[in-house]
Each structure stands twice: as structure tokens, then as C-alpha cells.
Amino acid sequence: MDKFDVAVIGAGITGVATAYALAKGGAKVVLIDRFGPAAMASGWTLAGVRQSGRHPAELPLAMEAVEIWRTLHEELGAPTQYRRKGNLRLARNADEYEQIRAMVASQQASGLDLTFLPGNADVRAIAPAVSPGIVGASFCATDGHADPQATSAAYMGALKRLGVTIVMAEKVEEIGVTAGKVSGVRTSARSMAVDGVVLAAGVMGNELMKPLGVSVPIETPMVAVIRSVPIAPVLEQVIGVSGGDWAGRQQADGRLRITSGALAWNGVMDTVQTDAGPRPVIRPPLSSLREIIEKLDHLLPGLGATPIEECWAGLLDLTPDAIPVLDRVPGIEGLVVGMGFSGHGFCLGPVTGRILADLVSGRAPGHDLSSFTFDRFRDTAAGGRLELHG
Ligand SMILES: Cc1cc2nc3c(=O)[nH]c(=O)nc-3n(C[C@H](O)[C@H](O)[C@H](O)COP(=O)(O)OP(=O)(O)OC[C@H]3O[C@@H](n4cnc5c(N)ncnc54)[C@H](O)[C@@H]3O)c2cc1C
């Protein structure tokens, strides 16, 4: 039987960044995914790289992440298509104006360089495509966006060079625990002995934890996404709105990528065979696309006629307080969990990967993780407040 120091379960951004940090530190690592790299949230994502609007506990992680994103392509030796052109959160009415103004004041106090733009002319000086109906906005110049597939490919290339064993299209069916300590993993095809497991399986993390008697309370709302054909440059920033019911950006290749707010998911997920292997597919309802387009036309007038190239839906792992779990599982030595990113874990990936690698290796993570503990929900029901702002 093969033996590894650590099995990382899940090849989304959290898993690949964890495997990268572990392998760079010299660990013998296996990365396992039931589908393939970026097959779920990390491929479905809008891929905003944002500090603005973060929960106070997440802000230091997001600020560090943004620094890493700046040179991540150099470190990984391949493009991530990271662009640091800012994030605007738009106010559509007086209530939203006040909410955004308060958010700016509070985040400035936490040390983030965030600006309040008090009038439409200020907003349009930065993003001329924005509607004359927008009354104000927050602007964080150091926010930005990256390309999820390029970033995933960059990490996977680095993992191969570092000698990580990569096992795709194989589902982990069981995490083995012997005498209170992780001892192995069993997939649909094989068993492996391991000293540690990092569980980065997103919305599916509980499937593997429940047989061990533990879980993280999450809800799994759905978000619809539309991607257009390439168009001439119109928008450099990521745009969000107060309330998080719409977000959008223009990709480096000219395509608009636009998301709905959180919607109820009917529980249906198909699996399709692609050239890259099996991939999960969630189909958005027509009504969600209509809403995205109506809001697009309202926020960025004239773009609603842009041809659609593709649409899909993605799932979120929403915790009761809408921030993730980054912790060792109490009572199960060697099991570390990184999940519950609640719609904003893409940006954090390079930092959470390093933190999870530290936790499973017994090193100090270098961040205060007291807000991200595993058992903080013991007496709480699911259902946090979502922050979908790119
Ligand atoms: C539409 C949408 C828009 C978003 N916009 C943003 C944004 O702008 N900015 C931002 O920062 N975040 C955003 N997010 C959130 C962000 O994409 C996620 O928080 C992040 O990608 C989570 O990464 P992950 O690696 O933890 O999980 P995932 O990417 O979901 O990866 C989990 C992996 O585990 C695998 N897996 C599950 N079970 C098993 C098993 N039993 N065995 C083996 N493998 C298994 C899955 O196949 C999957 O590949 C958005 C999310 C969505 C859906």
C-alpha cells in the first residue's frame, strides 16, 4: 500500500494551494479529486480577488492573499491572469449609499485603503460604463481578479514539478481513523496509508466527516453565472452591489463574467464526461439569467444585448457566520479542515493553503484563527449572511 505524509482531498483552489505549500516544505503529498482540478466552486467562480467588504477576521488573510497574488504567476511559473484594477461596490439607492459609507469607515479603521466615492461623477471617473443612476460606491484600488482555470493549471503544473502524486477522477470514500488518529484514505480504486489529511472538499466535505461523527453546518445555495462572447474593453474593475445580489467583471480575454445573488438549489447535479474527465454540472433556471441581464442593463447600460457564450450555476458552502472553518478537527488527530468559504474563498486560496499546510504539519499558522474554529457552531443553526461581491 502506498504511504504519504498527507492526503489533500479536493483539487479546488484550497486543495491545490495546500498541496503546493506542503510539497514545497518537503512533504510527500497525494492530491485526490473525485472529478478534476477546479471542477466545482474554484472553476464556477467569478474569481474576484477582493479585500473590501471582508469580515474583520478575514481581512488580514485577504490582505496577505492580495500580496501573494501579485507575484503568484512568477512563483508558479505560469500565468494566473491576475489583474489589480480595483473593486467597486455600487449603491443603487439612499439605503445602500449609507450601508456602503458605513462599511468604508469601518474597513478604513481596520487598515484597508478603501475610498468612498460620494457621487455618480466620482464613480464614472473610475468606471465610465457605470450607469448615471448609481449614487455612490466604495472603491478599493488594490482589489482585482484572476482567471480560475489559468490559476488552477498554474498550481497543477507546479505540483507536478514538485513530485506530488495526483489522483483525479477518483472519489475518496472513507477517511480511516485508528485509535483517534488519521491512518489512511480509501478511494473508489485504492487504499493509501497517510499520517495526515487536509479535507478541502467544499460543499461535499461533510460526506466524509459524518461517518466520523463530526460535521460543519453548511447550507448550499446556488449562484448562476453568465459568460458572454469577447467584447471590446469596457470594464477594468470587479463590480459588486450592496446586498451582493449581482457581481461582474470583464475577463482578460474580453468576455463578461457575471453572477446572480444566492438562489435556492434544487439538489440536482449531473455529471458529464468531458475531454478532461468527469465534471459536475448544475443548470441555472432561466429566471436567474433574466435577472442577471436586467441588473446588468441597469448597472452598465447597453451591455444587455451582448451575446451569451455560456452559462452555468455553482454551489456555495455557506456557514452560519459566512466565514470558513480552518482548523484541526478536535478529537481526530491529523485531520484538518478547510471549508465553508461562503462565496469568497477563491481570493484567499494562496493563504488558506499555506495555513492548512501549517496546521497539518504541526506548525504555527502565523494568523489568529480563533474566528475559524471547527467547533464554534456547536449551538448555532446554519444560514449566514452572504457577501457575494467578487
Ligand atoms: C458563482 C460563484 C462565484 C464566486 N465568486 C467568488 C469571487 O468573486 N471571489 C472569491 O474569492 N470567491 C468566490 N466564490 C467562492 C470561491 O469560488 C470558493 O470559495 C472557492 O473556490 C472554494 O474552493 P475550495 O477548493 O474550497 O472548494 P471547491 O473548489 O469546491 O473544491 C472542492 C473539490 O473537492 C472535490 N471533492 C469533493 N468531494 C470529494 C471526495 N469525496 N473525494 C475527492 N474529491 C472530492 C470536488 O470535486 C472539488 O473539486 C464564488 C463561488 C461561486 C460558486
Strand content: 25-35%
Report the total helices: 9
The major beta sheet can be summarized as:
8 strands, mixed
Global morphology: globular
Class from helix and strand fractions: alpha+beta
**CATH 2nd-level architecture of the largest domain:** 3-Layer(bba) Sandwich
Helix content: 25-40%
Tell me the radius of gyration. 20 Å
Spell out the CATH superfamily of the largest domain.
FAD/NAD(P)-binding domain
The figure for the number of domains is: 2
Assigned CATH class of the largest domain: Alpha Beta
CATH topology of the largest domain: FAD/NAD(P)-binding domain
Total number of strands: 20
C-alpha end-to-end distance: 43 Å
* Average pLDDT reading: 96
Unreliably modeled segments:
none
Q: How would you describe what is shown here?
A:
The chain is α+β, with helices and mostly antiparallel strands and 390 residues long. It folds into two domains: 2-62 and 148-217 and 319-377, FAD/NAD(P)-binding domain (3-Layer(bba) Sandwich); 85-143 and 220-315, D-Amino Acid Oxidase, Chain A, domain 2. It contains nine helices and 20 strands. The strands form four sheets. Strands 1, 2, 8, 9, 10, 11, 19 and 20 form an eight-stranded mixed beta sheet that branches. It has an eight-stranded mixed beta sheet with strand order 5-6-4-13-14-15-12-18, with helices on both faces. The chain has a two-stranded antiparallel ribbon with strand order 3-7. Strand 1, helix 1 (13-24) and strand 2 (29-33) form a beta-alpha-beta unit. The longest helix has 18 residues, at 59-76. It is globular, with a radius of gyration of 20 Å. It starts with a strand and ends in a 29-residue tail after the last helix. The mean pLDDT is 96. Flavin-adenine dinucleotide (FAD) is lined by residues 9-15, 32-35, 39-42, 44-48, 171-172, 200-202, 204, 207-208, 223, 225, 259, 314, 316, 339, 341, 343-347, 390. Flavin-adenine dinucleotide is lined by residues 9-15, 32-35, 39-42, 44-48, 171-172, 200-202, 204, 207-208, 223, 225, 259, 314, 316, 339, 341, 343-347, 390.
